[in-house]
Write a structure and sequence with these properties.
- The relative contact order is 0.21.
- Helices cover about 65% and strands about 0% of the residues.
- It has a single domain, classed as Nucleotidyltransferases  domain 2 (Four Helix Bundle (Hemerythrin (Met), subunit A), Up-down Bundle), CATH 1.20.120.330.
- By secondary structure, the protein is an all-alpha fold.
- It contains five helices and no strands.
- The longest helix has 22 residues.
């Protein structure tokens, strides 16, 4: 199963959940946007790993805590890109499990970073 389509869908969802201008900031759904942005990036990396025939765990997926390091070892991500994936994961955890909310700035940055991860798919296909 390819994850490139799911990665694109999650990025589109993140972008739709963010305001198009400052006047709409009150309507932003920052927690949901950050969560979707993380999954866009995660699925982008997972797609590359699958295309490179990299093994998944016995449950059939790449674990969130190990994927950044594995992706560096597999030469899918640089160390800086792995740090970005960890940053997105941290915002996803904050969004989904903590009392604090993801800020509009964090959610917007998450969507920007996710766009860069999605470019990994485009780069690998070319």
């Amino acid at each position: 199963m390819r994850f490139d389509g799911k990665a694109r869908e999650n990025l589109e969802a993140a972008e739709r959940l963010l305001p198009s201008d400052e006047a709409d900031e009150v309507d932003a759904l920052c927690n949901a946007a950050a969560s979707r942005a993380y999954y866009s990036a995660y699925l982008s990396v997972a797609d590359r790993a699958q295309r490179d025939s990299r093994p998944v765990n016995d449950r059939g997926y790449y674990t969130h805590d190990q994927l950044p390091n594995q992706a560096v070892a597999w030469e899918i991500l640089s160390a800086d890109e792995a740090d970005d994936l960890r940053l997105l994961w941290g915002w996803r955890v904050k969004a989904d499990y903590h009392e604090d909310h993801v800020s509009i700035e964090e959610a917007s940055e998450a969507a920007n970073v996710a766009r860069a991860f999605l470019a990994l798919i485009e780069e690998a296909v070319s």
